[in-house]
Amino acid sequence: MTDPLPGPLLAAPGAGVPDAPAARLADWFDAGALRRNRRYRAGVWALGAVGMVTGPALTLTVALSGPRWRAPIVRISGGRPIAAAVAFAAALAVAGEIVDLPARSAGYAWGRAHGLVTQPLLGWLADRGKAAALGGVLGMGMSAVTAVAMRRRPVGWWLPLWGVVSAGSVVLTAVAPRLIEPLFQKTRPLEDPELEHDVRAAAARLGVPVRDVVVSDASARTTGANAYVSGLGPTRRVVLFDTLTGEFPRDQVRFVVAHELAHVSRRHILRGSIIAAAASLPAFAAIGAAVAGATGAGRIGPRDADLTLRRLTTAVAAAGAVGMVAGRLGMRVSRGFEREADWEALRVTQDPDAAIDLHRGLVMSNLGVPDPPRWVQRLWGSHPTTLERIGLALRFGR
Length: 398
What we know:
14 helices; 69% helix
C-alpha cells in the first residue's frame, strides 16, 4: 500500500499526488461512440458561456439604470435603508430568474432531446421555483445584513460582511442535508448488506466514522450517475445516485464510495472553506473599494434608502465581476481535491481497473467528454478530465 497523503490542513489541494500523464484517448474510447456526447456537450458549453455573461450583464445594467428604479423602491420602503435593501434583493432575484430562464429552459430541452434528462416539465419547473425562492430568501437576508454593515461601518463595512459570509457558508454546508437537499430529492438508506459492509471497511481504513450512506432517487431526473458527500459532523452523509447503484458493477460502486469517503478523511469541506475565506478577503476589500470610489464613504442616515441602494447596486455589480475570477480559482481547488480523493480511493481499494472502468462508464452514462477543450476545463472543470483520471489509475497500477 502507498503512503497516505500529507496532513490535510497543511497541504495544498492535490499535494502528495504523483504526477501522471493523461491516458491516450484511442486506447480507452471509440471515437464514433463519443460523437453524440460531443454534440451534447457543445450545446451545454455554449449555454454555459451565455450564462457567464448574462449574470454580470444584469447586475451592471441594474447599477447603471439606478436613477430609473431607485425612487419607487425608496417610496415603497418608506425611506428605510434595510427595507429598501430587502425590496431590492427581491426584485433582483426575480429579474435574475427571468434573465436566466431562456438559457436554463434551453438546457432542459437539450438534455431531454439527448435522453440525459428524464424529469417531466412540471417537475423541472417546480424545482426551478424552489431554487429561485431559496435563492431569493438568502439574497434578501444577505442584502439586509449588508445594509446594516454599511450603515454601522461606512468605511470598513466589507470586513464584518466577509466574516458573516464565511461563517454562513459553513452553516449552510452543515444544514444542507436536513433542510435543503430534501427539497429537491428523496433518499433512502442503502439496503445492500454487502455494499454496506464494503462501505464500513473502507471507512475504517480511512479513519472516517460512517454515519449515513443513502441512495438518491436521481433516476427521476436523469440517466446520469454520480455520488457526493455533504454535511458536517452529525449531518455528514454520502449520497449515491440510484443510477449508480443500479447500473454499475459492485467493484466500481466501491471505488465511488471510497472516493467520497476520502473527501471526508482529507477534510476537503473544511479545507475548502478555509481556502475560500482566505481568497475572498481581498475580493471583499476590492468590492469595498469599488463602492467607496463610486458613492463615497459618508455615513448613511436612518432614512437614506437611496444612498443604501446606490451602494448595494455598486457592490453587487463589483461582486459579479470578482465572482467570475473567484469561480475559476474554485475550480482549480476542486480539481486538486478530486485528485487527492482519487488517489486515496486507489490506495484503499487497490483496484485501478475498477477505477478505469468506472471513469469510462461515467463518460457514457453522463454524456461526458473525456478530453474537453482546455478553455472548457479551466472555466468549468471541477474534476480532472477523464483521461487524466485514467492516467492516474494507470500510474497507481504501475
